[in-house]
Structure formats: C-alpha cells, structure tokens
Design a protein that fits this description.
By secondary structure, the chain is an all-alpha fold. The protein has 2 domains: about 1-65, no CATH class; about 80-240, no CATH class. Helix content is about 85%, strand content about 0%.
C-alpha cells in the first residue's frame, strides 16, 4: 500500500523529466559531433551526471506531488479554518523564514557570495537577510488572504522602493540583490508556500484561490531584493561613506 502511494503517477513524472532533459542532451550530442570533440572520459562522466540528474528530478517532483503540495494545502486549510485568522500571519512569517533557510539554492548563493568576496560579505549574513525578507513577504501574503487588500500596490510600490534604494546602496550589492530574488523563489518556496497560500485562501470565507492564493511568489521574489539592498546601505554606512 505504501509503495503504491509513493509510486502513484511516477510514470507521468518520468515522461515529463525526459521531455525536459532531452533537448539539452540532443543539443550537446549534435555539437559534440560537429565541433566539440570532447574526450571519451568526459562524455562518460557527463552522461553519468545526466543520469543522476534524471533520477534526482524524478524523485524530487514525485516527492513534491505526493508530499509537499498536499501538506502545504492541508496546513493552509487548517489555519484558514480557524476563528483566529490572524494566526496565519505569524505562522506565515515562521514558515517563510524556515523554508528560505532550508532552500538549497539560497545556500549555494550564500556560499558563492562569501567565496567571491573573500569573506567580506559572510554567507550566513546573506542567508539570514534573505530568510528574514522572505518571512516578511509571506506574512504580508497571509495578511492579504485574511484581510483581502489589493496585491498590485505592494508589487509596484516595492519595485519603486528598490529603484530608490539602488541609488544609496553599495554597488556590489545591486547585482546580488536581484539574483537573490530569483534564487529565493526556489523549489521549497514554490511547492510548499504557494500550496499553503492556496489552501488558506480556499478556507478563508470561501475565497477564490486564483485571485487570493497566487501572487505570493511575486512577493517572495521582491523581498530579498529589498533586504539585500538595505544590507548594502548598512555596508556603506559601515565603510563611513554616509558618516
């Protein structure tokens, strides 16, 4: 019984992953014969890596389908059905922080930043800044579901603020900030937090999950940009440029 649950629909997942990887493999094979002419050992290692990637993607997407999405929707539905709907806001803050803290892509980015800066920008500092920024974004997203305020002003206003902050932040942090926005919207956020928002929006007064449940990822993409730009301003102050 457990095996049936774990493997339910895995054939469709395998087909989807093969469709995603096949164009890249074909592209490489064509160029290998036309111009690259890489050594046989390299080709062997490459196809081992592709095989591992295939297995990993199948396992990940199957896990998302049978675990992350249902769990996120059920947790969101539970909190959306409570009388104290305001609890969604601090709960969203907590989950936003923990999800970003556990996001593999975020940790890779933090490691690269610390390595490239020679330790001048600690990876842990970036990690906590991103996690805190996403936590605020998820809390705002939950507040939007609870109180039903408009989504567009937050996105437009947020990017206008980002444009203003770019004028005052350390130039080294501008590119990092916008890369962080893409990295923070990784598989953990998209699969779990979006499912959480959709599940909560269904339960809160029978809300429309299309208009109320979605849009959270846009807020999550925006919040790291702002938090890293603010961190860059703090670095300029630390260097004495604004004293």
């Amino acid at each position: 019984m457990a095996a049936e649950i774990l493997l339910a629909g895995v054939d469709h997942v395998i087909v989807e992953v093969l469709q995603a990887l096949s164009p890249l493999v074909i592209f490489f094979v064509v160029f290998q014969f036309l111009s690259l002419q890489l050594p046989r050992e390299y080709i062997f290692g490459l196809f081992k890596g592709i095989t591992i990637t295939l297995i990993g993607m199948v396992l990940f997407f199957q896990g998302v389908k049978i675990a992350f999405l249902p769990a996120g929707q059920e947790i969101g539905a539970y909190f959306g059905g409570l009388e104290q709907l305001w609890l969604l806001i601090p709960f969203g803050f907590l989950l936003g922080f923990l999800t970003t803290y556990a996001e593999p892509a975020v940790r890779v980015l933090c490691y690269q930043i610390e390595k490239s800066s020679g330790g001048y920008v600690p990876g842990n500092l970036i990690l906590y800044a991103l996690s805190f920024g996403v936590a605020i974004a998820v809390a705002i997203g939950m507040a939007r579901i609870v109180y039903g305020f408009a989504f567009l002003p937050f996105v437009i206003g947020g990017y206008l603020i980002a444009i203003v902050l770019m004028r005052f932040t350390d130039p080294d942090f501008i590119a990092i900030a916008f890369d962080s926005g893409g990295v923070a919207t990784g598989p953990m956020a998209v699969t779990f937090l979006m499912a959480l928002a959709v599940g909560a929006s269904v339960e809160v007064g029978g809300g429309n999950p299309i208009t109320e449940g979605f849009g959270l990822i846009a807020l999550i993409a925006l919040s790291p940009i702002l938090s890293i730009l603010i961190l860059g301003i703090a670095y300029r102050i630390k260097k004495g440029e604004y004293v």
